[in-house]
Amino acid sequence: MSSLFSKALVYLGLVDEDQVEAGAGEQGMITASDGIMQPNSVDSVPEGRRVEPPLTARTATRPQGRSEAVVAGGPMVRPVEIQSDILVVEEFGDARVLADRIRERTPVVLDMRQVDQDLVRRVVDFSSGLIYALDGSMRRIGDGLVAVLPPRVTLSRDEKRRLASLGAYELDDVD
């Protein structure tokens, strides 16, 4: 009977079943040419058995066209005339609302001024993972205010002014 380790190697495709059966009589040991018993290692995988991982969706769906303008090594981000949603965070469940809005390509301003620091840290960590996964961006726009933007979206001047009038944008770059 094969060892659990040998079965795992076969299951993962690292060795052939024939190799395991041939070495089973020696209980997982392979005899080297000089007669010394050596443990069966992954280095003894036959050539041509390596399987390359498939391309991830992130690299496969990246735009390859030349029509995008390139600024500082990346695609140019243009202001979009979309109104941002202001999400007043009260519990961690609001992070799901944030993710849904970002997937719909709607900019979101997180208002975390009335929340304890542990929840702020958890929501910011979640948003960081979200924008990393979706190629978005995140920016602090005031004390307890964070703008979370979908990929290739930024806030226009008019939107910054609108947010400032609502008390949800505290930076001086409004114009």
Q: Topology, pairings included?
A:
Elements: H1 4-11, H2 17-24, E1 29-31, E2 37-39, H3 57-60, E3 70-71, E4 74-75, E5 79-80, E6 85-88, H4 94-103, E7 108-111, H5 117-134, E8 137-142, E9 145-149, E10 154-155, H6 157-165
Parallel strand pairs: 5-10, 6-7
Antiparallel strand pairs: 1-2, 3-4, 7-9, 8-9
Helix pairs in contact: 4-5
- The sequence of SSEs as H and E is HHEEHEEEEHEHEEEH
The radius of gyration computed from the alpha-carbon positions, rounded to a whole number of angstroms, is: 27 Å
Query: Quick one: CATH superfamily of the largest domain?
Result: SepF-like protein
Helix content: 25-40%
Residues in β-strands, percent: 15-25%
Task: Return the CATH class of the largest domain.
Answer: Alpha Beta
How many helices does DSSP assign? 6
Structural class label: alpha/beta
> What coarse outline follows from CA principal-axis ratios?
elongated
What's the count of strands? 10
Q: Low-confidence parts lasting 5 or more residues at pLDDT below 50?
A: 30-38, 59-72
The CATH topology of the largest domain is given as: Translation Initiation Factor IF3
How far the N terminus sits from the C terminus, by CA atoms, comes to 76 Å
Please identify, by name, the CATH architecture of the largest domain: 2-Layer Sandwich
Q: Number of domains in the coordinates?
A: 2
Oligomer: single chain
Q: Walk across the major sheet and give the strand order.
A: 6-7-9-8
| Residue-averaged pLDDT | 74
Q: Quick one: biggest sheet? A: 4 strands, mixed
